[in-house]
Write a structure and sequence with these properties.
Blueprint (H helix, E strand, L loop, with lengths): L1 E2 L12 H9 L23 H27 L1 E3 L12 E6 L16 H13 L7 E5 L12 H9 L20 E6 L19 E6 L8 E8 L9 E10 L5 E10 L2 E10 L4 E9 L6 E7 L9 E6 L5 E7 L5 H7 L4 E6 L6 H6 L2 E5 L6 H12 L3 E5 L10 H6 L4 E3 L7 E2 L25 E2 L3 E3 L4 E5 L5 E8 L2 E6 L16 H11 L9 E2 L4 E5 L9 E5 L2 E3 L3 E4 L2 E5 L8 E7 L2 E9 L12 H8 L6 E3 L5 H13 L1 E2 L1 H21 L1
Parallel strand pairs: 3-4, 3-5, 5-6, 6-33, 14-15, 14-16, 16-17, 17-24, 25-32
Antiparallel strand pairs: 1-2, 2-34, 7-8, 8-11, 9-10, 9-12, 12-13, 18-21, 19-20, 22-23, 23-24, 26-30, 27-28, 27-31, 29-30, 31-32
Length: about 675
Amino acid sequence: MAFLFPSFLFALAAVAVPIILHLVQLRRAKRIMFSNVRFIQVSKDLTASHRNLKDLLILVSRILFITFLVLAFAQPFLPASDAATVVDDADVSIAVDNSFSMQNLHQEEDLLLLNVATDRAKVISDLFPASAAFKISSSEKLNHGSSMQRGEARTVLDELDFSAKAFAPGSAFTNKASNLFIISDFQKNSFVPSVLDKADSLTQVHLVPLKAASTINITIDSVYLEDEFIRAGADNALRVKLSNNGNEAIQGLPVKLFVQEQQVSALSIDLPANQSVDAVMTFRASGVGALKAYVQLEDYPVVFDNTYHFVLAPSAPINIVEITDDQATSLQRLYGNESFFKYTSFGSGNINYAALAAADIVILNSINSLSTALAATVANYVKEGGTLTIIPPTNESNGAYASLFQNLSLAANFTGANAAKTSLAAPDPNHPFFRSIFSDFDPSIKMPTAVRSLAWSRAADDILKYRGGTPFLSRFDRGSGFVYLMATPLTESFSSLPNHALFVPIMYRLAISSYKQAQQLAYTLGGGTIQVPAVAMRKEGVYELRRDTVAFIPEQQVRGGKLFFNVPPDMHEAGFYNLQLQDSVVATLAFNYVKDESYLEQYSPDELRALIGNERANIHVYDYGDAFSVKGEFEKRYFGVKLWKYCLILCLFFLMAEIALIRFL
């Protein structure tokens, strides 16, 4: 034990005063005159030993009263357990996690974690003398990183709000402070213990974890259309992927779909613990231009990920190019009668290659003689992202397709006309290609029959098969595009498929699967490159992203008729933004928050200690508790245990003991 003001110990000489009074016995007997003995009160019998004990106890109380009073002024304390000291003019850095995960509730207090964190930071600031300089850091750069006094630091903490940026405590290490406090929930999904390696060995790092009441959170991971092609005025299916990031199942979660601020669909869904579920929501798209839409669920208290914004851009007609030598084919009648298909037919000797390159899907329908130039052009078209469907001819010329198969690395060969037709096997209704085709699937459906004139192996996906298991319709992934191979020509002598009920949905699905939206439904804040068509290229200027009165100018480049730009790092608010060139709106884009903050599982103090290890003596982890416990533990470690308060309490206790002895004993 040591004393902050040891000179006050000389006042212990005052203990001699009650001792002298006790020895001298200053009390003298007094003579009192009475007119009548009736007024004399009967006195109690008091033995000498009893009186001496009372006087001795009073003397001890007075001595201890004076002793602890002097000790209170001398301010005794137990020295700090750590060698590090905190000087009066120390720089103190406090890093407060204000990411979206801090919207969670605290385990012991009915407050958000961010509110508890700011309260802890204020208590920590009170630990240091008024001359200390403070630096407050968070996900956002506050006060330009400059030092401030305690009062200003408390004001900055009061103004702290949630940020879309992930909490990066490593940025606080640049302050080179003598003490650094990190107050966070320490998510397992985002906190990396190796970031503490950036701390200077002279900096004492204090990790103050906050315990959340629950780690259950429901988030909307993504949304996507069953078909990228959006049909105006018809039913469209939207798939919503929901994730339950907690250890408890959720029953009856309400999910709503809004288009142009009008609710168009709703459902109630059950979510098992720690699992994801796909929900299907049906809607009708009406109106002209891009439609602003969002999916919303009800989940508390972490609400930042309860809404997922996306844009339903109107789909242009699907551009279909058929290359055939027949005057009239079944595909011409099939695609030509639908307004959402733009059908064009060319003969093998009269091809518009510019139209072919702009097509969404190219169909080679029974071409007997395939030129080398056409084979090379079609192969490049596929590798650059196009979709090719090959329907074999009835009489294939020797080696006509060899060059095309070689360019596309297809191990396919013609088997010759086989008069025997084989029945096809029933399709799998759960296959993505047949999704939403069957309203009520009958496995005993009568399937068409077909001759097998083209054979292949090792396809990326076999869509239809013969009953024997050999493929009839398969998909191959080549470069950025796809190749669909059909095993037989679409003529009655080779196949009964053109007269079967499956023919129309299969050919429609082939065309629709080739469609690619010019822009995605939604994008993510926080980085990445976005690609959209530069439809306003005739104008010169700089593209900007605008939301209400706020505008951002991203890094951008126009090449190949497309605009490439990076998401501005300062754009943090989810929602809809207009991509503008001067006063023209090029496109409407939807942005959503990253999902890292949605996973609330956190490190406990013991887990943090295990991750840090014993080698880093300057890093200290505090247990869960209120602000007072953290304050007391820090004071004990670095300031020592102050005992003057206990001395003052004992001083008052012995004063009251003296009064009680005189009055009642």
